Amino acid sequence: MGDERVDAMEIDGQQRQEVAAAVPDGFNADYLRIYYGKLFPYVDFFKWLAYGNDAKHPGCDQSYIGRRELSFTLENDIYLRFQSFDSAAELETSIKEKCPFKIDIGPVYSVDPAKRHAYAQSGNNVFVPVERELIFDIDISDYDDVRYCCSGADTCLDCWPLMTIVIKILDTSLRGDFGFNHILWVYSGRRGVHCWVCDSRARKLSNEQRSAIADYFRVYKGGENSLKKVSLTGPVLHPFLARSYTDVLKCFFEDKLLHSQQLFASEERCQKILELIPDENVASELHDKWQGNRRSSISKEDVNAARWEQLKTTLQSGKHKTQGLRRCVEEIVFSYTYPRLDMEVSKHMNHLLKAPFCIHPKTGRVCVPIDPNNCEDFDPMAVPTLSQLLGELNAAGMQIDSENDLERTSLEKYIRFFRTSFLQPMLKACKEELEAAYSAKLQQSKNTLSW
Description:
Number of helices: 17
Distance between the termini: 80 Å
Radius of gyration: 26 Å
Strand content: 5-15%
Number of domains: 2
Helix content: 40-55%
Oligomer: single chain
Shape: globular
Number of strands: 9
Order of helices and strands: HHHEEHEHEEHEEHHHHHHHHHEEHH
CATH topology of the largest domain: DNA primase, PRIM domain
């Protein structure tokens, strides 16, 4: 079959099974239509965004899901904002009909966003965002100054672990320091990860509170022109930073990054690290030592570890115990490994973020959930692609309208994880909160009556 374009009818199982298994790589509206027709998890997706308000319980807010903005980007960059849906069936019909190349999720507004113009006359504060998950967006392209294997949107297994570190650090702190439980990590489909904190407490945070949480995680600062982006001030590290350093960053830097990125393998790379040392005498002392190394018998593999050890020994020796140098080793490690967040995305309730289970148009990969407990096993190169999924459906001999399409594909394990590890525990908590709030309300009205 080679690179021929696959006819949509053929993919729908009209031809013999053995011919239909291979599907040319790529991303197009025909492929996408089949994905939305057979694999997109509409019911799970809708249940997530309804947060229990789609049930029959009298305490449910029936208007809740209909006030959520979904934005569609169609072929040729046609942009449809402020879509809203009252049921999973309505959402499914619209997606199948419009075949969006991208779906973004916005906030829950005070009124139905699709009807916002009707409220425009009645004053300023009628159409405002009132609820939104606490979100984080991290792109590996923001690490281009500390990775030497790839740049821009490209990733490989040498630099992807930088994203694994993001998940480990943020997930541990969001749960341990902030007490959040319902956190969804999603691969962006190309160059990064998205985090959705979905506890009701997180969804109700004001913009000021969101900013405070984002600032709590902010260590990497400074514009493109400032050489030193990390300054760890004060006599002791904040407990969160100390824990991040000892539990995750130090080992990752020394055991993996030094070697995978060959951080000391050239004059230019060494210079970059020396520029992070505030004392010129110490920097030049190290530079001379490393020049000497070049003439010694240190092998290419060992040069990174050897030079790092020399730097640590020099900076931590008795004669350099000045305040400015004391933190320098940690600052270098933080500069190269600590999460670099897109702060604006987290600070404001009205930011849109790409929905899980979309297909990335550049890579054809599905935006799948990542298990934070096993994030080091996640391989972005192994994520199912659109053409791979269609090939899997074909290989199974697609029966039209089959109930079990999903089970025949490599997407099934990701949707199962979403459902069992994230959605079900979260909906259980939503139900308990809803019932507790409803009981309290009933009790309050009883008390008022009895008075």
